[in-house]
Amino acid sequence: MLFNEHYIYIMASKSGTLYVGSTSNIISRVYEHKQKLVEGFTKKYGCVRLLYYEILKTKQESLIRELQIKKYNRKKKEELINKLNPKWEDLAWDWYIDLLVTQPLIHRKGIPRRSSSGL
């Protein structure tokens, strides 16, 4: 990721619900979606897999492109994804591995926090 880049992206749920968004920091934004940190569509529908993204030069370009893609019908969005990612794999599957290794376990349902002694 370089400074002053802007991104449009498509996230999907396991059931195939699609979400189109834009950001200037795709790594942080995708993390927020994956962790369901922001109330809204992606949290409600579980859109946690990054299937597609484009890099644009300006915020204005990214907002225009985002609106353009949001107007696409489902078939056209699928065609866009299939050009870059025909298997619909999560393009960000390995972006946060370092966080999992270096950070203590986060309290989630059924997973207790790791104690300071490491046990």
Q: How would you classify the helix and strand content by structural class?
A: alpha+beta
CATH architecture: 3-Layer(aba) Sandwich
Give the termini separation: 36 Å
> How many helices in DSSP terms?
5
At the fold tier of CATH, the topology name is GIY-YIG endonuclease
CATH class: Alpha Beta
Radius of gyration: 16 Å
Count up the domains: 1
Major sheet description: 3 strands, antiparallel
The helix/strand order is: EEHHEHHH
Question: What is the tally of beta strands?
Answer: 3
User: Can you identify the CATH superfamily?
Assistant: GIY-YIG endonuclease
User: How large a portion of the residues is in β-strands, by DSSP E?
Assistant: 15-25%
Query: Helix fraction?
Result: 25-40%
- Largest sheet, order of strands side by side? 2-1-3
Overall residue-averaged pLDDT value = 86
* Poorly predicted runs: 105-119
InterPro entries: GIY-YIG_endonuc (IPR000305), GIY-YIG_endonuc_sf (IPR035901), UPF0213_domain (IPR050190)
Family: Belongs to the UPF0213 family.
Domain GIY-YIG: 4-79
Protein name: GIY-YIG catalytic domain protein
Question: What structural keywords apply?
Answer:
119 residues; alpha+beta; GIY-YIG_endonuc; UPF0213_domain; GIY-YIG endonuclease
Explain the overall architecture:
With 119 residues, the chain is an alpha+beta fold. The protein has one domain (6-94): GIY-YIG endonuclease (3-Layer(aba) Sandwich), CATH 3.40.1440. It contains 5 helices and 3 strands, in the order ββααβααα. It has helices at 26-34, 41-45, 59-71, 74-84, 97-102; strands at 6-12, 18-23, 49-56. Strands 2-1-3 form a 3-stranded antiparallel sheet, with helices on both faces. Strand 1 and strand 2 (18-23) form a beta hairpin.
